[in-house]
Design goal:
single chain; 188 residues; alpha/beta; Protein-Tyrosine Phosphatase, Chain A; 4 strands; 42% helix; globular
């Protein structure tokens, strides 16, 4: 199946949602921690289709937390299959850095299967400079999209770029249980 390229796309965090209420958003993917109240900002948006998935921003199972699953990634890809070239897609998570950027990367890769993975990541970075895609989600999407590990490798290179540009990111990512991503980026 060949999908149309996504032309209007926004990635943001919860605190930024209100600033997009007049952007004529038509499709919204909300990626929330389980139990998080749905953002009130959507009451100021026009008519739109919204899908909400709930899982934590973790890259390996942790007691008491819900890890992103293959089912979540499949649902994101199903959602993306319904986004047309005239839609304005907005994807958000808590901070607009990890889950939402992983989702956007996989939807860009799905919509344009001939696009090189480095170009997918470059487009993502142009959309959201502070991107740090969740590698658990990316690995599952890479597999589902038949990208042969190339999307994972491109994201790893993005992580390495982010560590060089923002060295303070390393300590933060290690503190929140993302050491494996940091080590992979440092080895890239």
């Amino acid at each position: 199946m060949t999908l149309e390229p996504i032309s209007l796309r926004t990635v943001c965090g919860i605190e930024e949602l209100a600033g997009h209420s007049s952007s004529k958003v038509t499709q919204v993917l909300s990626l929330l921690d389980p139990g998080t109240p749905h953002p009130r900002a959507f009451s100021g948006f026009g008519a739109h289709h919204r899908v909400t998935l709930e899982f934590h921003d973790i890259i390996e199972p942790m007691t008491g937390l819900v890890a992103p699953s293959e089912g979540d990634v499949a649902e994101i890809l199903r959602f993306g299959a319904d986004v047309g070239p005239k839609d304005h897609l907005l994807i958000h998570c808590h901070m607009g850095i990890s889950r939402s950027t992983a989702a956007m990367a996989m939807l860009l890769a799905q919509a344009e299967p001939s696009l090189d993975e480095a170009d997918v990541v470059a487009r993502l970075y142009a959309l959201r400079r502070q991107s740090w895609p969740n590698t658990r989600m990316i690995a599952m999407a890479d597999d589902a999209l038949g990208r042969g590990g190339r999307l994972v490798a491109a994201v790893r290179r993005l992580h390495a770029r982010q560590l060089k540009a923002r060295p303070e990111t390393e300590a933060y990512m290690r503190a929140v249980g993302r050491t494996a991503e940091v080590e992979a980026a440092l080895a890239a």
